[in-house]
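As a warm-up, study this chain.
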Amino acid sequence: MERLYARASVSISDLKKNPSRVINQSEGSPVAILNHNKPSAYLIPAEAFEVLMEKLEDYEMGRLVKERENEPSVKVSLDEL
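Now compare it with the structure written out below.
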């Protein structure tokens, strides 16, 4: 059995019948979308997706900083900017 990363789930067939009902009943929580009883997608609120994307951008920026931390630097004064 595959692990679900949501407390609620719905079949693709039921989602197609009434997507608004699924969204409203989720009350802002993720919903696993099942195809033949296996997760095929997750439906998450727009706000949660936006937070997730910001965290991913922060992670990528941190990874880039870590990657470049040993590169030589150039000193610049504020006046030169």
